[in-house]
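Recap quiz, item 2
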Amino acid sequence: MDMQINKEVKIIRNEAFLEKAEALDHPLFEEWVRPVRMVKMVADEAAIHGFRAEALPDSPLETAPLGKGDCVIFDFGRHLVGYPSFELEPVGSPPDAPLYFRLTFAEMPVEAAVDFSAYDGWLSKSWLQEDAFHIDVLPKIFHAERRYSFRYMKLEVIDSSPKYQVKLAHIKVRAVTSADQASLAPLHATRPENRQLDHVSLETLKSCMQSVYEDGPKRDRRLWLGDLYLQAQASYVSFQNVDLVKRCLYLFAGLPDTQGRVPANLFIAPEVRADDTYLVDYALYFMDTLYDYYQHTGEKETVRELWPTAKSQLNFAAEHLNELGIMEDRPYWWSFVDWNPDLSKATPTHGLYLLTLKRAASLAAEFEPALVEELTAKCEMGKQAARDHLYDAPTGFFRSGTDHQISWHSQIWMVLGEVVSKEEGRQLLLRTMRKNPEIGLTTPFAYHFMVEALFKTGLKEEAERMMDTYWGGMIKAGADTFWELFKPDDLNFSPYGSHLINSYCHAWSCTPTYFIRKYQL
Amino acid sequence: MDMQINKEVKIIRNEAFLEKAEALDHPLFEEWVRPVRMVKMVADEAAIHGFRAEALPDSPLETAPLGKGDCVIFDFGRHLVGYPSFELEPVGSPPDAPLYFRLTFAEMPVEAAVDFSAYDGWLSKSWLQEDAFHIDVLPKIFHAERRYSFRYMKLEVIDSSPKYQVKLAHIKVRAVTSADQASLAPLHATRPENRQLDHVSLETLKSCMQSVYEDGPKRDRRLWLGDLYLQAQASYVSFQNVDLVKRCLYLFAGLPDTQGRVPANLFIAPEVRADDTYLVDYALYFMDTLYDYYQHTGEKETVRELWPTAKSQLNFAAEHLNELGIMEDRPYWWSFVDWNPDLSKATPTHGLYLLTLKRAASLAAEFEPALVEELTAKCEMGKQAARDHLYDAPTGFFRSGTDHQISWHSQIWMVLGEVVSKEEGRQLLLRTMRKNPEIGLTTPFAYHFMVEALFKTGLKEEAERMMDTYWGGMIKAGADTFWELFKPDDLNFSPYGSHLINSYCHAWSCTPTYFIRKYQL
C-alpha cells in the first residue's frame, strides 16, 4: 500500500460553499474539569499494553513539592479534549534556575507509562502527546496553548535546582466540544450493557465533535469522509448537531478537484484545505451522508446545492469499473474499506457503489427525476455483474480481486449492496461467521458495517452479540472512549508499527449509540 | 563547599529604594540581526572542547526543505542576547501531522555539536539552552518567547511526516541590551591586540547589560554584586550607563536582611527578590561600587542614601575577624574570591576588607566625618595584624587559613589591601609569578584583581602580558565574548562538572576594556 502524494491535483475552490460552511462554525461548548485522583501506572501482564492505572491516596488537587526526576500523573476520570492549566509555585529558596518539566498526555495507561523516545512507528512521532517546557520565572500560572486529547496527564520535573522544588495547584482542563449536552436525545435502553455501550459511544462522539467532526482528537484531528458518515448517523440519534453535518458537507463540496472529486479528508487550519488523497469509498460516502442528511432533516436546499457534487463521486467511482462492470483494485491506496494491507478492496467497494447508486436514485427521484432510470439501471447491472462474476459457488462466498480473495468484507458489502436477497444475505453472514475467512475485520469501522449487515438481514441477536463482544470487549479492556483499532486476539495491534500512536478516541468507533437508539435495543 | 540555604533569613524591604530602582529601569535597545552564514560543527582535537564551526556554502537566509532528522545551524557571526524568529513554510502535501523541532542555542560550537541528554553536571540541566516545539498549524511565523544567549542557533526536525517537509525563511533575532552604542566613549588604543581585547570586552558587557547588570545572559541571568562591581567599572569608561549602576545599587539596598546585610545576588523577576546567599567579599563590593560611583559621578544624594547600607557590610565582614583581628574561614561558602574549592578565602577576603575600609574612610570624610578616624584605625590595625600573623618570612609569601595555605589570591589581595608597600608589592607579585604557588587563579574574576595589582605596583608590562595571554588566550581559542571560566592549561575546566553549563559571555570577564581605557594602553 502506497500513500498518495498527488502534486498535480488542482482544487477548484467553491467560495460560496466555503462561506456557508464558515457561517455554520459555531463557538464550542466549554467546561472546566478537575482531576479526580492521582495514579501511578503499574506493569500488569493482564492489562492491555501491559499497564494499568492504580490510584494513589494523594489528593489530586495539589501536589507535594516536586524536584528533579519527580513525576505525578493526574487522572481526570474520563476522556477529555482540551487545554490544561495549573499553578506552579516554587518551594524553598528563590528559584535560581529555570524549571524544566515535561507534560505527557495519555488516552491509555501505556502512554503515561513508557518513554516515547523509543517510539519507532511509521506515523510521525509528532503525534505523541508530549511537550517540555522551561519556565524562567516562577510562580507561574501555566496555560497550555496546544489542545490535547487524554484522560491522564503526566508531569515530570526534568530539573529544577538543588535549591528549590515546585508545587502544582489548581489543576484543571478547559474541555471543549461542539456536542451540546442539552440537546442529547433521551436513551430508552434498559439493558446495562447497552446503556454502557451508549455512554462510551457518546463520550467518543463528544470528544470528536469539534469545529468539524474530527476522526480522532489525538490523531489525525481531521475531517475524513468515512468518519463523518458514521458520526453524522450517531449524532442524529444523540446530540443532533445537524449544522455540523451540513458544515462538513459544504466544506467537502467547497474543495473539489478539476474532475469534481472530493478529497478523502480536509485540513481545517490555518484555512480549510484538501488533502491530496482520493479514496473511492470515501468519495461515495459523500452521497451517502447527503442521503442520510435529507432523511433526517428533510431540508431541500442543501441537497439541491450539493447534489452535483454527490453525483461527481459516482462518476469517480465508476472509473474503477472494469469491462465486466465490476470494481477493480489499483496498485495504490485507492479505497479504504479497512486497515489491512492484504485486503482486496474491489468487491467491498463494489458493494458500497451499489448501495450508493440506490440511494442516489432515491434522491434523484426528488432532485433530478430524469436520472432515476439510469441510476437504477446501473445499480441493477452492477448487482448482476457481481452475481455473475464474483460469486464462488463451491464455497458459497463472494470473491474479490485477481487473486479471488475471500474476505469478511466482501460478504458484508454484497449484503449491504443488496446483491443477494435478505434471506441469502442472512445465510451468507452466518456462513461467514461460521467459516471465518482468514481475511477478517480489523477496525471498528469495518465492524460497523458487519453489524449493520446483521441488522439488515434480521440477525438482531448476532448483531447485539457482536456489539457486546467487540465494543463491549474494548470496555472490558478499559476503554473510556472507543478506539480506532481493536483486534480482540491482538490487543497490541497497530497498522502504524506502534500501538502508542493509535487513536484511542476515534469517530468511526462511536456507532453503538446509533444501533442502540435506531433499533431500540 | 556547601551552598547556603538560609530559610530563616528575613528581608526588610525598603520600598522607597526599590521604587527609585524601578524608576531607573529604562526600555532596552533593540536591534534585528540576521544570520551571516550556515555552519556545521566539526570534530577537531585542536579546537576548544573538540569542535569548531565550519562554514557551509548555503545561503543563511533560507533553508532547503527539511524533513525528519535534518539539522541546520545558523551562525549570527557574533554573540547576541535576544529572541529569534523565523517563518516555517511547509513544502509538499498539506502537513498531515504537527511539525516537531528542537532549537538549541550555543555560545560555543560544542553546545551545538553534542547531545544535551548526556549532561551530568551539578547545575540544573534547565540552563542548557534547548527547547522543542510542536507546531500544529503551518505555515507559521515562529517567535521564541524565551530569551536566549548565543552566537549559533541549531534547528533539528525531530519529525514532520513522510508527506511534507518544511522550509525556514526570514530568520532573525531581536537582540536586546541596555548598552547604548551612541554613548560609547571613543577608544584611543592603537595596538591591535588591545583594540581586539576592547572589542570583545564590549561585546561581553553589552550582552550582559539588560534590565540589570547580569552576571551572564545564559546563566545565571542574575544581578551579583561581584559582577556588578567590575561591570560598573567597565561601563564608566565605555557605554557610561550610570543609571544602571545606580539602579542596581538601589535594588541591593532595597533588600537588606534584619542585620542590614545585602545578599550576594538578586532575582529580578517576577519581582526583585534577595537570594538567600550571603558572601562577605560580595557584601564589601557594595561599598566599593558605591565608592566608584561617587568617583565617577560626584553625585551626592545617592551616596548619602546608600551610605548606611554600605556601612552595614563592613560590620557583616567584621564578624568574620578572629581574636587576632584577621578574617577566618568558615566551613560553608562564606566568601567567593575565586572558583576553587581548595582555596582558603580568609587572607584574600582580609585584603579586600582593608581596601574597602580605606575607601569607606574616604567616603566618610564627606558623608560622616565622625567615622573617619575609626575606619582608618581599623584599616591600619588590620594591616598590622596581617603583617604580624599572615606573612611567612621563610617563603616571602602571605599565608591563609589554619593550613597556612599559600595561594596567588592571598598575595594579590595583600597588595590591593596595601598591607605591603608599592615596592614590596611589586616584589611579591614578581615572586608569585616566578614561584607560581600551586593554588592558582581559575576565573577572569580572580585574574582581574591580579592585573589590577600589577598596574597598582607599576608592573604595567606584566599586566599587559597577562591580558594578552589570558584574555587574548580566550580570543585565540575562539571567544566572541569573554568567558566565565578559563584555565589555559585545562580548556575543559568547569567548576560545575561540565563545560556545557559554563557561561561563555560573563560579566566579570569584561574588564580588559577598563584596563585599556583607564591606563590608556
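Chain B has a mean pLDDT of 96.
Chain B touches chain A through 46 residues (CB under 8 Å).
End of item.
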